Structures are given as C-alpha cells and as structure tokens.
Amino acid sequence: MTSALGSAPTGRDDSRARPTPTRAHRFRWARAAGTGWLYVLPALVMYAVFVLRPLVLTLQYSLYDWNGIGVARWVGLDNYLTVFTDSDLLKIIGNAIVLIVFFSFIPVALGLLVASMVRRITTGAFGTVVRTILFMPQVIPLVAAGIAWSWLLSSNGLVNQALRAVGLGGVARAWLGDFDTALPAVGVIGAWVLLGLCTILLVTGMSKIDPALYEAARLDGAGPVREFLAVTLPSLRQEIGVCLTVTIIAALASFDIVYISTSGGPGLQTTVPGLEIYRLAFSQRQVGLASALAVVLMLLVLACVLPIQRLSRGEKP
Amino acid sequence: MNLSRREQLTGRVFLIALIVVTLLPFVSMLSAALQPRGTVPSGLEWPSDPQWGNFADAFTAANMGALLRSSLLIVAGVVPVSVLIATMAGFGLGQLRVPGGRLVFGLFLLGLTLPFEAVVTPLYYQMQDLGLLNTRWAIILPLIGLYMPFAVFWMRAHFTNVPVELSEAARVDGSSTWQLFWRVQVPLARPAIASLTILMFLWTWNQFLLAIVLVDDATKRTMAGALGAFQGQWGTDLVLLCAGSLLILTPTLIVFLIFQRQFIKALIQGSVKG
Fold this sequence. Notes:
The complex is a heterodimer.
Chain A: H1 7-10, H2 13-17, H3 21-61, E1 64-65, E2 73-74, H4 78-85, H5 87-118, H6 125-139, H7 142-152, H8 158-165, H9 182-206, H10 211-219, H11 224-235, H12 237-252, H13 256-261, H14 273-282, H15 287-313
Antiparallel strand pairs in A: 1-2
Helix pairs in contact in A: 3-15, 4-15, 5-9, 5-12, 6-9, 9-12, 10-11, 12-15, 14-15
Chain B: H1 5-33, H2 53-62, H3 64-96, H4 101-110, H5 117-130, H6 137-160, H7 164-172, H8 177-188, H9 190-205, H10 209-214, H11 223-234, H12 238-258, H13 260-273
Transmembrane segments (chain B): 12-34, 72-91, 103-125, 137-155, 192-215, 238-259
GO biological process, one term (chain B): transmembrane transport
Protein name (chain B): Sugar ABC transporter permease
C-alpha cells in the first residue's frame, strides 16, 4: 500500500540502474513519501492557516472576556455558562432548532411524497425542464431568496394577495414582521430553497430501486402505505440521510436568509445563533461570548449530523 | 416500471405544482420590477406599461459593472487555486497514500460540517493583522482554506478509486511523479475536477457572510455580498430593489442554464458525497 510507487519497478528496469533492489526500494520509498507530502502540503497549509488556526482561536477566545481591542480577561467557562443560562441565548438556539422543522422535515417529507408519486423523472425534455427549474433555488444566492420572499410575504405581497383572493383577507398580515408568524415565515423561505434539492435527490434515489421489489410487494397485497414503508423508505435510507444532513446544517448554521429578511426581528423572534455570533462579535464587542456560542453551534451541528450519518450509512458497505 | 395511468398523472400534477411554487417568487419579482418607479406594487399584476428602463436604472444604481468585475476577480483568485491544491492533495492522499495520510485526512474531515460562523471572528482579527481587511484577499484566502475539507474529500474519493497499477505502469515507463500527475492522473480526473470547479464557483459567487464581515466596500465583495448592500441602500424602493436583485441573479442563472447538465450532476454528487 504505502510503496505504491516504489515497489513495482524494483524487479524490472530499476534493478539495472541501482546497486541492490532493497536499498533502491527503500530509497524510492522514502522519496515517494517525501514527494507525496509535497502534494498534500499546499492544501494542508491553507487549511491550517485559515481554518484550524481560527478554530483554535475561537476556542481560546471563548475562555476570555474580550472586547476585541483592550486586554482580555480570563473567565474560564463563564461564557459557556452564560450561553446555557441566558434566556435570550437559549431562545436563539431554540429558534435554530425550530427552523430544522422547516428547513429539513418539510422538504424531506414533501420530497418523499413527490418522489413516491413520480418514481422517476424522465430523461426527456420534460425531465430536463423539471430538474433545471427545481434546482434554481440552489443556484441563486440565499440573499436573493431572502429578498424575493421578503417581497412575497410583505403586506402587499403575493401571499396576502392570494389570501384575499380566496376570501381569507382576515389572516393577511406582514408575515415577517408579526411576532407569531415571523419564525415560521423564515422557515418557509428555507423550505422553498431546499425543497427542490431534496425532491431531486430522492427521485434520483427512487429510480435506482429495483422495480421487482414493488412488484413483489404488490403481489403480496401491499397497499401504497405498506409499499412505502417496506420498500421505499428502506431503499432510500442513504438519500434521506443526505437530505437530512444537508438541510439540518443549513437550518442550524442559517445566516443569510435571516439577515436579509428580518435581521433577527421582531424582537428576538427570528434571531439564530449565526446572526447572534455576528452581532455579539462585531456590534456588541463581546468576542468571548460570541466565540462560546460559536463553539456550542459547532457541537450542536455535530450532535445532529453524526447520528444521521451513522444511521444512514451504518449497515451498508 | 408499471405505474398506472392515474399514478403517473398525479405524479405529474405534483411536479408541476412544485415548479409553479419554485417559479412564483421570480415571476412576482419581475412583475414588481416592471412597475413604474415610485408606485407601490402589489403581489402579482402584469403592468399595463412595463418599465424595462428600471433595469437600466438598477444597473447604474447597483454599479453592476464594478460588481461583476469584483466577483470575477474573487472567483479567479479562489477557484483555480482551490481546485489545483485540492487535486494535488487528493492525489497524494488517495493515490500516493503518503504515510500519516489517514491522520491528515481525518483532520480535513473535521472541517466538513464546520459552520463558517464558527471561525469568522478570529478570521476578522487575522485579516486585520495581515493588513488585508477590506481587500478582496480577505475573502479569497479564507475561502480557499474553508473549501479544503470538501474539496480534498471529493478529490481523494476519486483518486482512491483509480487503480494503483496505473501509476505503477507509468512508473515503469520512467515518468516522474510530477509527470504521472499531470499526464495520466489529471486527465483521468477531469469529470471530478469539472464538478468541483462548478461547485466552488457557485459557492464563491454566492458567499455572503465572509463578504459582509471582512469587506466594507460593496464593490470589492462577491455578488451575494453586494446584493446585501444593495438591499440596505434601496430596501425602501421596492421596484428598484426587485429589478436590481433580478439583475444580480442573471449572470448566475445564465451560467447555470448553459452548464445545466453539469451543474445538476455536480450538485447531486456534491450533496451525496458531502
């Protein structure tokens, strides 16, 4: 394995050039390992300087009380204590968890529904159009999605226009500005962005399922629900895992959409950890607390994503 | 697949409903963008006299020429370097299998789920110390680093599947590792490299957080960052905001439509592997 480059030639033309095969082997091996490292090094250096170093600094900052300019004061785990006891910060973390329902569960559930209806998207023109359009929200910046939906959900926007048209004018409101509806409204934006991606991933997975499985299920007298539970869900385990991973990260680490559509308001109704880190660090100059929240956010992402990875890939080779 | 007629029809209806929902925000923005300036548009109504001139106004107001140039410069700084060094690292880890490679790869994996928010504060101070704050380098350099976990993961996955015998055969022919890399491995890796390039382009173009934190001047930001500034400035002029947003979207959409097949392939593979 390790001597991928050194071992093969030794028996052949190399033996002519070098005194003993073993020494040549060792020499080549060492050189190959050395050269190999040269290939890995540039990426590793960039990663170390611009990701690992800041990461270690975040951990370090989180243990200090620092305004970004003056002298930092060691406070141990106090910042973490604040993150877990301050009611505002807990609410902010809670908001991110609520967003998972919208960013993850709704797109995956709807995607599964559509996928089991469609089974496969044709490779023909219709299929290409469907795929292209459903991917558009993935291609545009989230900021643009935020602007578009701020307009749609505003008092004169399309959503209210539609509600008035069907006689539900009473519930019309500025959805993103209302205390009760702001967070779900932000969630809807995320759902819109991620729905197409989930649908296409699930339909793609669906088209790989052996049709014989469905025929067998039908012969056994399985209805659509049983068929879904017994064939579709288990076969799509990996794809569902992927969708959940991508969307849960998008929910927990959300920033762009919230920043643009509500700036976290009204009150703290839609403030998410990403936005609060930005605010704490750059407006309120509480770098230590911002860093502690960043560490907690990072761990929260891992705590959600690792079990999903294990479940969806665990038993498959 | 023997689906009944009715099932196929319901499937199609669902898909079409999904398409309508996906397109409505764009259509609604377009209808607002075409209203006369200074009016208050409502959700969706085709204007009697479409004001296409609004787009010209927005082009000037948003300083589109400068924005395009800035985004292109950032993409040019990030994408080729990222793809090159990630390909080299993927080759080193997946094909040369350097000793200690597993450890290094584990280190890269650590960053795979890392939210950018977790490192943006120290990056700010780091850029300040380097004197790069408010320059495009402040976006370019960190992005290269931040892309490495995914990019190396991606390229390593490709190189792990290339049979080692291929390298050995090239060895026998007397080529050096460098020649082997460029003449044999890179051409073979072209599809993986193409997908990676597309994803990096998209993520760079749409990068928002780093742009607003590290660069104040909107004309030195990415497209997404500039759009944020545009909204801040013209948020109350809905007609112009919609026109400007659509304008800023257009380059991405055009590139997407041209390379549609490759984009979708890259995005599907990208999320499956990530």
